[in-house]
Design a protein that fits this description.
about 110 residues; OB fold (Dihydrolipoamide Acetyltransferase, E2P); two-stranded antiparallel ribbon; about 10% helix
């Protein structure tokens, strides 16, 4: 494994990318999407944002409902099959599919990741 991306200034990263902990409060199927994704509503404490998240290979609705996720909240909105995805729930490739990133212990929704 080699790291392939160019190095960036850490201060610049923290200025430009806003990642926060959110709690999944709603999970619905999204058959209109070309890829197999869920529609998520994620609570960040002072607001809720929607996300189209490719977590269907590993997670059922019950697995995600109430789960804490790490999301990028300042990318802007992307429209997918008429659905406005307002944040990017982060994940990594696992043996069975995408695994969402989470916290070791519960923290308040909206807590900033740094």
């Amino acid at each position: 494994m080699g790291l392939t991306e160019e190095r960036i200034d850490p201060a610049r990263f923290l200025e430009d990318v806003e990642m926060r902990v959110g709690e999944v409060v709603d999970v619905t199927d999204f058959p209109a999407a070309r890829k197999d994704v869920y529609k998520l509503t994620v609570d960040f404490g002072d607001e809720q944002l929607q996300s189209a998240a490719g977590l269907t290979d590993v997670y059922d609705h019950e697995d995600l409902l109430g789960a804490q996720v790490i999301a990028v909240v300042n990318l802007g909105t992307v429209t997918i099959a008429g659905f406005e995805s307002e944040c990017l729930v982060t994940g990594v490739d696992g043996a069975d599919g995408v695994v969402h990133l989470t916290t070791e212990r519960d923290v308040e929704p909206g807590t900033r990741v740094y």
